[in-house]
């Protein structure tokens, strides 16, 4: 009886995740930004050059050896210990990937383990699906992600502080705290809109990601390699230690895939670009940073996003329109019931008006932003959660 109950649960979980990762059939408008920075010829060559044994070996030996294995049961420890025996096979995988030959699909399997977002959950939507990816594929993904990170600092806005070498979580937080503290001290008004994405990685529209990469000057061969990594993926639910039926992963990015964080940054950067276009057009205002004098529209740490604007109804409407446009092209959805509006030196009636325009609730300081406590008064900088 218990076995039948477990099978029923597994069937429901497979059906739920199959729907979640099924390619959306709705129409997505194309997004075009001719002002995006481009890769240099040298950077393109660094991506397209043949994969070297040493860069692959460094990725394998820098990984934690006994992390959770994927469907094949192997860990990094196995590849580290028997590197001389498996080296030729691993190098062959990279050769086939770069030459465009099929074959990655059989390595690109994942096991989904469901992590509850809070205690006492009963709805499957309240679980976060985390992927346990085959280590052989993870090696490929880590090498690709390492190459991408090396060229991304010149392409990703400074407002994004996640996963880019040389940037730190606290960079964006300090800018946000500086602006809020200055507004309080100078008795000026301003608004911070903390955005909460709903199932951010899972809902990414992949064609939009490919468009963004192409507009940055990534060569077709490189985009095809990334596409092969995403489009050949398939997953199964891990329930009580046992995998169940496999299903294709036709949408989004997998949490647990080393490539996903850097690729997700290219998706959410579009929101920053849209804010900049609106600011140049004069129909959206950020808030001035006292250190640089520039007006700052938002700060981001991966999907953790804080928009800032003047406490005016026109700016609130512009913020709502910008986020709507971003949702439309990217496939991501904002959870407005969890997003909050934070205001400095703004009367309560006006705060409520602004909150109604953007469609979220008002919250008072202090608030946790980018994992740190943001306050309208002087306080010591906190530590990341």
Automatic annotation (TrEMBL):
SUPFAM superfamilies cross-referenced by the UniProt entry: DNA/RNA polymerases
Organism superkingdom: Eukaryota
Pfam family, one: RVT_1
Domain Reverse transcriptase: 96-374
Protein name as annotated: Reverse transcriptase domain-containing protein
């Amino acid at each position: 009886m218990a076995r039948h109950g477990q099978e029923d649960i597994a069937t429901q979980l497979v059906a739920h995740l199959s729907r979640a990762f099924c390619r959306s059939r709705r129409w997505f408008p194309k997004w075009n930004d001719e002002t995006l920075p481009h890769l240099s010829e040298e950077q393109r060559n660094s991506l397209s050059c043949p994969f070297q044994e040493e860069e692959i070996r460094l990725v394998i030996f820098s990984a934690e050896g006994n992390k959770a294995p994927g469907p094949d049961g192997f860990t990094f420890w196995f590849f580290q210990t028997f590197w001389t025996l498996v080296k030729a096979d691993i190098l062959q995988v990279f050769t086939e990937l770069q030459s465009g030959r099929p074959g990655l699909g059989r390595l690109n399997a994942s096991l989904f383990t469901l992590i509850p977002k809070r205690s006492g959950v009963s709805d499957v939507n309240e679980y976060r699906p985390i992927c346990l990816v085959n280590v052989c594929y993870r090696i490929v993904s880590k090498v690709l992600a390492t190459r991408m990170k090396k060229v991304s600092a010149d392409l990703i806005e400074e407002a994004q502080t996640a996963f880019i070498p040389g940037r730190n979580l606290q960079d964006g937080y300090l800018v946000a705290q500086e602006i809020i503290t200055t507004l309080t001290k100078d008795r000026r008004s301003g608004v911070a809109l903390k955005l909460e994405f709903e199932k951010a990685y899972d809902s990414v529209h992949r064609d939009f990601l490919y468009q963004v990469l192409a507009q940055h000057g990534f060569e077709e061969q490189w985009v095809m390699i990334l596409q092969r990594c995403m489009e050949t993926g398939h997953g199964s639910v891990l329930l009580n230690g046992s995998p169940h039926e496999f299903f294709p992963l036709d949408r989004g990015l997998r949490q647990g895939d080393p490539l996903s964080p850097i690729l997700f940054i290219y998706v959410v950067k579009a929101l920053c670009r849209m804010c900049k276009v609106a600011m140049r057009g004069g129909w959206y205002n950020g808030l001035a940073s006292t250190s640089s004098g520039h007006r700052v529209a938002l700060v981001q740490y991966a999907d953790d996003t804080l928009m800032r604007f003047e406490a005016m109804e026109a700016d609130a409407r512009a913020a709502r329109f910008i986020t709507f446009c971003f949702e439309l092209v990217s496939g991501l959805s904002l959870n407005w019931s969890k997003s909050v509006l934070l205001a400095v030196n703004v009367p309560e009636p006006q705060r409520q008006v602004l909150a109604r325009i953007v469609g979220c609730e008002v919250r008072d300081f202090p608030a946790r932003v980018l994992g740190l406590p943001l306050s309208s008064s002087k306080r010591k900088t906190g530590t990341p959660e």
